[in-house]
Design brief:
Elements: E1 2-6, H1 13-23, E2 32-37, E3 41-43, E4 49-51, E5 54-55, E6 64-67, H2 73-78, H3 80-83, E7 94-98, H4 101-107, H5 123-127, E8 138-141, E9 144-147, H6 153-164, H7 167-177, H8 183-199
Helix pairs in contact: 1-6, 6-7, 6-8, 7-8
Length: 202
């Protein structure tokens, strides 16, 4: 199973790197993430240059697509040519968005009446798209999920691992990366956030 972590110019390092790093701890179980970029090299909001591992066309074949956020997301959604390179299909793909990535899902018409999570700076722009923004770090309905706040990227990764491999695998990854002495607390918090986000509107 392949995961495209879509990473645009001006990206937030925490969003793309945390999600891909956590998911890639499941390589031996057949789940692998790739930083997927519209150009060979993208530069983060803090000036970090990163070479994409996969071109944007990879999103069409990926089993999971995660849309990262950044300081240029409003430029992304205004770029018809760039948006057209994201042929996402929630019928066969798990699709997630981090913070301002919710704008991309809204622009693609994937949210419908679904509420979303995003960060405080992106909130007014997401709401301007007619989307209800939740005061929560994670929300999912079916095959679509959104997360709000940089460190909520761990919840997006937890959702992906849980949906593809199961909670035991997600717990193992979280336990490994948790701060020493906070292992169970970290695992419980992430699983609780994902469960609550999936059950919120049931």
């Amino acid at each position: 199973m392949q995961v495209a972590v879509v990473t645009f110019d001006g990206f937030n390092e925490l969003d793309s790197f945390i999600a891909s790093a956590l998911i890639n701890r499941c390589r031996k179980d057949g789940l692998e993430a790739f930083v997927t970029t519209p150009t060979p090299v993208v530069t983060s909001m803090n000036g970090v240059e990163v070479s994409g591992q996969r071109p944007m066309e990879f999103v069409a074949e990926a089993d999971v697509v995660l849309i990262g956020s950044g300081v240029k997301t409003r430029d992304v959604v205004a770029d018809e040519r760039l948006i057209s390179r994201l042929p996402l299909d929630p019928a066969r793909q798990l699709i997630g968005a981090q913070c301002s990535g919710a704008l991309v899902l809204a622009r693609l018409g994937l949210l419908g009446d679904m509420p979303a999570c995003t960060d405080s700076k992106s909130r007014p722009f997401v709401e301007a798209c007619g989307v209800t923004v939740l005061d929560a770090p994670f929300h999912a309905e079916g095959n679509i999920a959104t997360a709000g706040g940089c460190l909520a990227s761990q919840y997006l990764a937890t959702w992906v691992i849980t949906r593809t491999l199961g909670e035991d695998d997600a717990s193992g990854v979280l336990d490994y990366v948790a701060p020493v002495g906070e292992n169970q607390e970290t695992v419980d918090r992430a699983l609780r956030a994902v469960r609550a986000g999936e059950a919120a509107l049931r």
